[in-house]
Structures are given as C-alpha cells and as structure tokens.
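Suppose you are handed a protein chain with no further information: no name, no annotation, nothing but its sequence. What can you learn? This example shows the usual starting point.
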Amino acid sequence: MKQFVIVAIAGSLVVSGTLAGQSRDELRRKYGEPVSQTFTVRPDVTATATYAADGRVTELLISPKTPDLIKSRGKTLSADAIKEVIDELVPLSARGKYLIGGFLNLRCLPEDDCEGTSTSYEQLTIYYNAAAEGRLHYAVVQWKQ
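A reasonable first move is to predict its three-dimensional structure. Written in structure tokens, the prediction is:
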C-alpha cells in the first residue's frame, strides 16, 4: 500500500509540474529566441514587436491591454491614443516620405471587422483597424522589405 501511495504522489507531482505554466527560460530552451515580444507602453496599451532573424523590428501591433481570454472583443482605444504611441515608437523622421493614405473597406468573416485606414510612407505602412464611434481596435506598423 505504501508503494502505491508513493507512486500516486510522484505521479501527481509529475502531472502537476507539466500542467503548470512554463517560464520564459523554459520556452527559450525549447524553441529558441522569441520572434516577438509584448511591451506595456501605457497602462491600457500594449505594443507587440515582431523581429526579423537579424533582430530588426519588422512589425509593431499596438492594441488595448486586456487580461480577457477573448482579446478581440469589446476593448478599443481612441485614435489619438494610438497615434500618440505610434509617434513615440516611430517618429515621422523615421518613416520616410509620405506616399499615400486610404480607406480599406474589406470583408472579413465572420465578424466583418477589417475596415480601417492605411497610411503609407517610404519605410513603412500603418494600418488602423476601425471600431465604432471613431475608435480603433488596433493598429499595425509594418516595415517594407
């Protein structure tokens, strides 16, 4: 009976260890360096940077910070708040010459939530995903190759 209890305890420890969240170091050991990282740039705003193999930032996703399981529902930011963060992360001087801006009226099922605007510069393009009442779901800054 003692052996059964010891095996049961050892088994539960192994199972509970694998069910617990993994640490940053464990993920790096398993999968290598991350291709992106998320930073809190304001109390309610995050910026996720995606990197090229050489470490250069290729994309920034600016979005509401939310602990919710479903990240895309309900949280929006003002256009001014997102533009302020973008100006801080990518000043006008780093974008190159302004090329063109436009509206995007796209169909993305099932939520039909891809409408927005884009602004293109020599070095990058910025996409603003529109939400109700002039607010934004998120914005993406993507560098040109």
